[in-house]
Write a structure and sequence with these properties.
alpha/beta; eight-stranded mixed beta sheet; two-stranded antiparallel ribbon
């Protein structure tokens, strides 16, 4: 009996230890809907009760669907913040099977087109389940007080293509009003943003991190040479996929009130980065990622009186690991006092 008790106690202690590596041991297939699941690296299992966890951070990977790398970077950031013991870390894997990508997919696992997951499109094998639906489901699971009694905050963060995912998801989801936990959305270095109306900053004008711009946001000059500049996913005309279930008016009403933080890399200024969106729609938003993020934050602040946060990560170029572990990143993800 004593040996059995000792074995049980040891097992409980082991289960409470966070899983820190992006290996099969830390990978879990998490139920989403219709008996379909999403693969995710996680520090603690979502299928068992976790009575000591106080916060969860979900990181959305970039265009290469490298959930393993983002999980590794998120673990490093949590350890730097001293938060890994009390935080559930999750890196979902939006696997792709399409022309141009062919990820290995387990039986019953959701998968998407190579790029459609970024924009809230439906899964290839489940037309009624969108990539944004997956995030809704994860947040709802984390808000289960029976399983996570001490968890009071969920942070969803995305960098690069994951940042595009996050900004559009944050604008369209209602999950933050449907659960009893605080939900924060942290948008890092996306190539483009979804604007809430047809106004853009005139060519030649720019904005600063101090909250000032050298020109007004306006409609007249913005459409010049780019008639599709306000179509989804750069604007709210012709909303599609998950966002097709809402309206521009509803987004304009709700999004400014959400807990959103935009972070840009101090050195993410490469105009010739091959992964930078150089379409006319994106070029209407600025010349490079740091400028685009600074302008969009000013747009939300000046036109919609949004209380959204903004920060510049010192020394960071277009690098997710650097952004997550930066002072602004640690503060946004873990409420850390890091500078």
């Amino acid at each position: 009996m004593r040996a059995l008790l000792l074995l049980t106690t040891t097992a409980i202690c082991f289960a409470a230890e966070p899983c820190r590596t992006a290996t099969e041991a830390c990978l879990e297939l998490i139920p989403i809907a219709n008996n379909l699941k999403i693969a995710a690296y996680r520090s603690h299992s979502l299928s068992t009760a976790q009575p000591n966890l106080e916060r969860a951070v979900i990181v959305v990977h970039g265009t290469n669907r490298d959930a393993d790398r983002y999980y590794t970077d998120l673990v490093a950031a949590a350890e730097k913040a001293g938060a890994i013991e009390k935080t559930l870390l999750i890196s979902p894997y939006f696997r792709g099977k399409d022309r141009g990508c062919d990820d290995k997919v387990a039986a019953g696992e959701l998968y998407f087109t190579c790029n459609g997951w970024k924009y809230g499109d439906s899964a290839v094998n489940a037309k009624d389940i969108y990539s944004f639906t997956v995030t809704d489901r994860l947040v709802r699971m984390l808000a289960d007080r029976a399983k996570f009694p001490k968890l009071r905050a969920v942070v969803v963060v995305g960098h690069s293509a994951g940042g595009q995912f996050l900004q559009r998801y944050a604008a369209g989801t209602r999950i933050d009003t449907q659960v009893r936990v605080r939900v924060r959305f942290v948008v890092m270095n996306p190539s483009s943003y979804m604007y809430l109306d047809a106004k853009r900053l005139p060519k030649g004008a720019t904005c600063s991190e101090n909250g000032t711009c050298t020109g007004p946001f306006q409609v007249e000059s913005a459409a010049e040479g780019c008639p599709s500049y306000n179509q989804y996913r750069y604007g709210i005309e012709n909303l599609a996929g998950y966002l097709g279930r809402t309206t521009g008016g509803e987004i304009r009403k709700r999004f400014p009130k959400k807990d959103v933080v935009y972070l840009v890399g101090e050195k993410d200024v490469d105009r010739n980065d091959p992964s930078l969106d150089k379409s006319c729609e994106s070029m209407k938003q600025g010349a490079f990622r740091r400028e685009r993020g600074t302008i969009f934050w000013n747009y939300m602040k000046s036109l919609y009186k949004a209380g959204h946060g903004f920060g510049i990560a010192p020394g960071c170029a277009h690098n997710g690991g650097c952004m997550l572990a930066s002072g602004p990143g640690l503060r946004a993800l873990f409420d850390s006092g890091a500078k």
